[in-house]
Each structure stands twice: as C-alpha cells, then as structure tokens.
User: What shape does this take?
Amino acid sequence: MATLRDIKRKIDAVKKTSQITKAMNMVAAAKLRGAQQNMEKFQPYAEKFKEVIRRLAAGVEEEAGFALLTPRAEIKNIEVLLITADRGLCGSFNNNLIMMAEKFARAKVEEGLGVTVSCAGKKGADYFRRRQYNIGQRLTGLLAKPSYDDALGLGRELIERFEGGESDEVYLIYSKFVSMVRQIPTMVKLLPIEPMDLGEGQGESVEYLFEPSHEALLEDLLPNHIYVQVLEYLYQTSVGEHASRMAAMENATSNCKEMVRSLTLTYNKARQAGITKELMDIVGGAEALK
Amino acid sequence: MADKILLEIVTPEKKLLSEEVDIVVAPGEEGEFGALPNHIPFLSKLRVGELRYRKGTTTTHVAIMGGYAEVLPDQVTVLASAAEEAAHIDVVRAKAARERAERRLKEAKDRYEFAVAEAALQRALARLRIAEKK
Assistant: This one.
C-alpha cells in the first residue's frame, strides 16, 4: 500500500495537470473565437465569388476545352492534399484526418496508381514522412491564421502539377466543421473541377457584358475558384482544430477532477487507518502496564 | 428607378465597404470604366489600380489589388484580392515595399521572378499614388 506521502504527491501532480489542461481549454476557446471570426469575415467574399463563377459557367459550353474542367481519359497519378493541425492534444482530430488520407492513398496504390501526398499541417506531414508515399508540398504553420496568400500558394502548385500532367486528379481532405462537438473528416475532389461544383444550370438568365471575353474571364476565374475553396477548407479545419482541442481539454480537466476525488478518498482512508492503528497501539500499551 | 447604386467591396480578409453611392469608377482590365445607376449587367476583370466612388460631393479613393467587378443595374460588387481605402494606406510600408520590389526587379534572374517583382512594384505604386489623394 502506498504511503500517505506518495498519495499526497500524486494528488498534487494531478492537480497541477488539471491546471494546465484548464488553461489550454481557455486558450483554445479564445483561439476558436478568433478563428470563427476570420472565417465569418471571409464568407461574403466566398459567397459572392461562387455567385459570379456560377453566372459565368452557366453560359459556357462544356466542350470549351478548359484544362481545369476536363477530366483525363486515363488516370495514372493522383495527388491528395491533406489539411491537419500543427499541434496535437486535440483528441482524435488529426488522427481521423490522417487515417482517412492513409486509407484512401493505400486503396489507390493498390489500384496501381501513383499517389502523391501533400500536407498542410505538421501532424500530417510528420506522419507521412515516415511512410513510403511521394510527398508533394509540405507546409506548416498555416492554420494559425490562414491567409489568401497561403491558399494561393498551395492552390497554384496543385494546379501547376495538374496542368503539367504530374497528377490527373487532385483531392483534398479537410475537417468539416459541423458544430462545436462534431467535426467530420471530409474528402473533396479539387481537380478537374466538376461543372456541378460551379452550379451549372442554375445561373439566372441575365445577359452580361464581359470584359475581357467570356471565356478569358472564366479561364482566369477557375484557378481562383481553387484558391477560394482551399482557403475555405483551411478555415474550417482551423476552427475544427480549436473546437476539438477545447473538447479534449475539457474532458481531461474533468478526468483530473475525478482522479483527485478518488485519490483524496484513498488518502483519507489511509490517514484514518493510520490513526486507528496508533490508537490501538496506545490502548494496547496502556492495558499492558496495568 | 434607382438613382443610387450599392457599392460593395469584399476581400478574402473582410468586407471592406457596403454603401449607397452615386457613381463608381473602377480600373477594368481593358480600361477604366464608370458605372452609374441602371448600368447594363457587366462582369469585368480588374487590374491593380484605383477605384473611386462619389457620394454626394465627396469622392473616395480605394486601392484595388486586382480582382473582379460585377455590375448590376442597382449594385456594383467588387471582389478584390486586397483593397485599402486611401485614408488607411500605410505609406511607410508601401514605400518599403516599393524599394524592395525595385531591388528584386534588378536582381530578377528569370521571367517568373521578374513578373512577381513587377506585380509587387505595381501594387506598391498604386498604393502610394492613391495615398496621396486622401
């Protein structure tokens, strides 16, 4: 049986841990608010952008021959862009994302396709570095504050490789933010762009003047469509990361409390047992002297 | 018939502006264009440059770092990759950016680097030009 001092020490240690997790919970809450605000500020742009591209896409025939819209006849190489957090201690958040990427990549390799994994976020990058996949881009530190420039950099490389024929399809895995307690790892196909994504056919029948030409404008907008999407997913993942960490830390804090409670109980029991034993000794000693 | 036009400027960072104005003049890819109320629906690419709008008797200048504009009879929406109102431009930063861009332009080794530096220089120059007009 542990001595009183051992138990006491253990209680102190657990209490300290709970202080840390509590602090982390609060930090995550503050960051979550910031991340959500950033995402909200981006919303008007994203919505407006989608509206414009929908209008543009509505008037273009499918065979217009845009490279980014044309599915390849033969798929040989694919690329997956995996967005994860840079840091851990957020429950199964990163793991869920990585598992999804790994499962997908393995299935594609078994089909005989070349798979390149690009990682935005340290956790994903660390995981895939130790495995035998081709690594494309490896970027960290994006999620702290996703910016348009980050999305542009990521997107441009994806597009360059796609156009250069190094990849025939590009997927993106991110964490979809459903609610504070629910973030779902989700995979979307980035390239070639599905005309459906542009919301073709829903365009209103407004006749527009275009400058420069309709086609040139659309061609110019398509890469931007990718950047906007990437940025949106970065934002969602970033919000999800903080929400997930908040939940994980809250759990940890309550687990700590539970542990302190049961340890205190053990401690008191042991203390009482000690007192009783001493009393017995004294009483026994007094009896013997009579 | 609307006699005002709703001007909205949005960037990925934030919604910069949403205001009823009298006229908008924007730097179109193929030349500057003005939009009055009841303009025909029009979509244009924007280059780096100056957008100005008049509301009553005051004219405001905004630096636009490229983007798109959608003109509807009662509304102009500008999607800019970045935009700053003249009063909010950081002149010191813009000057530093100009010098940096000029230096890069001289040291550029290939066409790509050259294009990047040139674009940066254009943005810096546009900011400075517009900052003077506040």
